[in-house]
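Task card 7
Instruction: Convert sequence to structure tokens.
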Amino acid sequence: MNPYLLNPAAAGLDGSLDVFLLNRQQWTEVQGSPKLSFLSIDGSTANKKVGLGFKLWNDADNIFNRTAFYGTYAYHLNFNDDQQLSMALSVGMTNVHIAFDNLSGGYHSDPLVLSQNETRTKPDATVGINYRLKKLVLGVVGYQLMNAKYDYYDPVNNNDMNYQLISHFLMQASYSFEVLPGKLTVAPDVIARTVLGLPLQFETGINMKYHDLIWSSAGYRPNSCVYLNLGGKILQNLTLSGAYEYNLGNFGSFTGPSWEIAIGYRFERNHQSVNQPVYQDNKIMDNLNRNMQQQSENIDKLVYENQLLEEKIKDNGQKIAGLKEEIERFKQEASFNKAEIQQLKAFRQRNEAKVEDTITAFTGETEMIVKDTVEKSLFPPGSRFNVIVGAYKTIKTAKNGQQILLREFGLSTSVIKNPESSFYFIATRQFENYSNVKTEYNRLKKLDVEQVINGEIWVYEKKK
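Output:
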């Protein structure tokens, strides 16, 4: 919800001016448990290359109370639309107050205790780097880099004591997926934290956002807690978010849960010229913003669908080229030599029924009589006919031809063989009358199946 809280390199990253207030109550069943109040403001300059930010927070842990403020300068370097590098430096002051008079016990009359109710203020610095490559975001942050040391003096025992801020480091990686393009985004992330001298602490989580109106996250910190966050827009630019942590193990049995609540407001950058009207009616502005958001979502959806279509066209182009090469190889493998061509030609002369020989040059009843007579002579009753779509020397080659016809034209066929011939013929289903034979013959001609078969289409007559 507020990436600037975690990494100063996020200051001004979204181009708007954001203000956030946060309150966190940790280990609610422990007396004197940590309490954090946080205010942040961040935005960018007109060219969006420079981000500026301000943080003010107070962290109270029992008798320790720290108040700090930081100013942030971030620079955003855009290599292209898909790649961006952000670097930031936060410099500020941290005030540490130790309230010894809040200790439980009979120490209130001890002059040493009373003398220690003092404050110390030291400079501090935080450095952050954020890198984005398309949907992948990587971040590295170093906190309390000055390792400020706060000295206190015991005038009674003439002793020195100190309180020191140790450097902390954080690494974060996340990747966004559009589950529902333009609507639902899911981003799993991994965070690793460490303090100098201590092992890494890992955290895994998943973040979900719907229409930039509602968001939620859930995560797990090993040997620490599980947490759930839920937030959304309650007005046009006003957001509210809450988080709940349930502590695990023996530690969690007596500490109680932790929770936090955050409220934010976004001031959108005004792109209007001085001559444009300023709309005062909030309802009109809300409608305009909703329409713009819907148009933006539609554009994103169209871009996404166009990318898918381009990838599909590219894949199909590659597949088509591969299939054409396969068909050419098949036709070369299935080609006949001169002797085989003569054998096939002789077989066809003995067994072919000529569809093209039908006479239609007459009119009226004469045409019908002549046409019927020719058809009966060419297609005598009782004969059976197959439309042949390829002749091959081996059954294996014929089977390959069947697969190509099925794939390219959705054409179901069978393989037949006449004992008088050494050829294997691919044929469509069997017919017994001229009308059906001619319909099938013309259909196959229209499909242009001859571009993939060995030979040409002809009608085989299986005589009685």
